[in-house]
Amino acid sequence: MTEMAGRPGTSGGLVLRAGQFIFAAACICAMSSAPGFTNYTAFCYLIASMGLQALWSLGLACLDCYALILKRDLQQAFFMSLFVVGDWRAQQEV
């Protein structure tokens, strides 16, 4: 497989996942600080979906750290299908 920037198990992938987590957490903080956000059900669901996005990004960032520390390659079919399906579902919620 070709070497792509930001692929899972690389330092570039770790930086991208960490950034994704940071921005998701910042969105949650900004949305929840709005006055009266609990009055709108759709807004509450949006905050909940961003929470799931943040957890997904944090979990994959931890997996990237694990792969970097142990020098493991995450370019296996099982891991790639996990990333593709998980990222697709996370984007469908947002």
From TrEMBL:
Location in the cell: Cell membrane
UniProtKB keywords: Cell membrane, Membrane, Transmembrane, Transmembrane helix
Pfam families per record: CASP_dom
Casparian strip membrane protein domain location: 7-88
TM region positions: 21-48, 54-70
Major localization listed first in the record, in broad terms: membrane
Keyword Membrane listed: yes
Keyword Transport: no
InterPro entries with a match to the protein in the record: CASP_dom, CASPL-5
Membrane topology of this protein: Multi-pass membrane protein
One annotated Gene Ontology cellular component of this protein: plasma membrane
Family label: Belongs to the Casparian strip membrane proteins (CASP) family.
Subunit structure: Homodimer and heterodimers.
Protein name: CASP-like protein
Species the sequence originates in: Urochloa decumbens
